[in-house]
Automatic annotation (TrEMBL):
Gene3D superfamilies, per database record: Ribonuclease Inhibitor
Record's protein name: DUF38 domain-containing protein
Pfam families in the cross-refs: LRR_4
InterPro entries: Leu-rich_rpt (IPR001611), Leu-rich_rpt_4 (IPR025875), LRR_dom_sf (IPR032675), Zyg-11_UBL_adapter (IPR051341)
Gene Ontology CC: Cul2-RING ubiquitin ligase complex
UniProt keyword GTP-binding present: no
This protein's UniProt keywords: Leucine-rich repeat, Repeat
Length: 206
């Protein structure tokens, strides 16, 4: 039988204190490990109004570096909180925006999260233009998961010169030659579904 850690046992209580405004004052931010766990707990809270004072408290107390949003719906308040953190790793879930202007595209997110070195967007459809833009906007990425995104052409990926890990499971890729220009890249990860490499066939002569 697994035993919950002290951090797991106390994280919900700490978040309750933040929402209630009863957390003792401190001039120091919490360390990233604790902050990441507390933000996970925060993401599980759906039925509590996120006030400006709560957002301010979270931004000043937490030092979040890793965020996994695959299992929660993210709205503008969460985006604003993340903008004030030092996010290095982001796994995107169902992002929403409460204003007409979208703030969830590759360009905008790269500006909001300039420290990002790991990005997971598995299962989110990307067209060729979006993928090329992504590769241009995140030159510091070391980890990228584009599994099951319907990407068929990896042109532009050579811009990610720092890339070390690339997950491309479930893709039917027609062109991978730029992948071999990535000097730091290890073997591309093909799981959970094998990637199908479609050979290029030149048009036949009339």
């Amino acid at each position: 039988m697994s035993v919950a850690s002290l951090l797991d046992l106390t994280s919900s209580q700490v978040m309750d204190c933040i929402f209630e405004g009863t957390l003792p004052p401190s001039a120091y931010q919490l360390d990233p490990v604790i902050s990441n766990r507390l933000f996970e707990e925060y993401c599980r809270i759906y039925d509590i109004e996120i006030t400006k004072s709560v957002m301010k408290e979270i931004c000043s107390r937490l030092n979040v570096t890793r965020v996994d949003m695959r299992h929660c719906v993210v709205q503008r308040s969460e985006i604003l909180i993340l903008q004030n953190q030092n996010i290095e790793s982001l796994v995107m879930g169902s992002l929403m925006c409460l204003e007409p202007k979208q703030i969830t595209g590759p360009v905008t997110i790269s500006k909001l999260l300039p420290s990002l070195v790991s990005l997971g967007i598995a299962g989110r459809p990307l067209n060729a233009t979006e993928f090329t833009t992504l590769c241009t906007c995140y030159p510091n990425l070391r980890n990228l998961d584009i599994s099951n995104t319907n990407v068929k052409d990896l042109r532009g990926i050579s811009n990610l010169s720092n890339l070390e890990v690339l997950a491309i499971g479930g893709l039917e890729v027609t062109d991978m030659k730029e992948v071999f220009e990535l000097k730091k890249l290890r073997m591309p990860l093909l799981s959970p579904k094998p990637t199908r490499i479609v050979p290029f066939m030149p048009p036949s002569a009339p």
